[in-house]
Amino acid sequence: MTTTLRPHDLLWLRAQDALEGVTEPWVAEHWHAGLPVVVRRDVAQDGRIPVGVRGLRRDQRAAGWVKPEQVIRVVSPEQLVAPQELPRSPFISQPPVQLALQLAQFSWPWTWGVTGSTGYALATGIPVIHATSDLDVLIRAPEPLSTRDLARWQQQLSGGLCRADTQVETPNGGFALAEWLRDGRVMLKTNHGPRLVSDPWQREDS
Predict the structure, then answer these.
(1) Are the beta carbons of 204 and 172 closer than 8 angstroms?
(2) Element (H or E) spanning 114, and its range?
(3) How far apart are CA 41 and CA 10, in angstroms?
(4) Cα–Cα dist 113/67, whole Å
(5) Catalytic residue status for 205
(6) Residue 140 vs residues 132, 169, 198: alpha-carbon distances, Å
(7) What is the DSSP track for 65-103?
(8) Active site residue 59
(9) Which of 51, 135, 156, 184 pairs as cysteine with 37 (C-beta 3.0–4.6 A)?
(10) Residue 100 CB-half CA count within 13 A
């Protein structure tokens, strides 16, 4: 596999035993190779990919590892928001998908996608969202972004269809957009843990 994997990418594996390092008993009962795992933040171990597994309940989350050669399919958050595909979703009537469709009608100066339960539902067809579900979105930001553009994005999210949270992904980690716009400083999630920063794009020593 030559694809560069990033946090929030969904991965399908060759077999159930491709998932390593998971001890939670519910995983063996509810997870199988037909369901994706999600790339998470961590320091890579022996070339293995850090992943997370989601269960049927909100509290069912487990961390594990997979070898790259066990990955047979990758779906990124941005692949889930193609404006020609969203209207075909079986969940198009749900508020989070409606809001994602609204966002897809605009031209933004960045690449973005859907994560969380809405992304999982769009990728799998499994009904893990409902009328009161949140929308979790991701903005790819390899370079600093305009605060004005980000504020315009945030305004689009506040229309009342559902609660929405945006995470901005920089080369150094991810941060919550609402926190950044409000405080000017932010807790940056990195592979080595969270770090409070004033400039999420500034490379700092760990």
Answers:
(1) yes
(2) strand 111-115
(3) 13
(4) 25
(5) no
(6) 26, 5, 19
(7) EE-GGGEEEEE-GGGGG-TTTGGGSTTTTSHHHHHHHHH
(8) no
(9) 51
(10) 38
- Options 9, 17, 59, 136, the catalytic residue: 136
Cβ–Cβ < 8 Å for 148, 110: no
Residue 39, helix vs strand vs coil:
strand
Alpha-carbon span 168 to 138, nearest angstrom: 6
Given the residues 134, 149, 165, 199, select the one marked as catalytic. 134
Instruction: List alpha helices for 105-184, DSSP H.
Output: 116-124, 147-157, 177-183
User: Where do we find the tokens 């843990």?
Assistant: 193
Q: Residue 93 — pLDDT band, cuts 50, 70, 90? A: very high
Give pLDDT tens digits for 127-183.
Answer: 989 889 999 999 999 999 999 999 999 999 987 789 999 999 999 999 999 999 999
Q: Using the 8-state DSSP alphabet, how is residue 182 labeled?
A: H
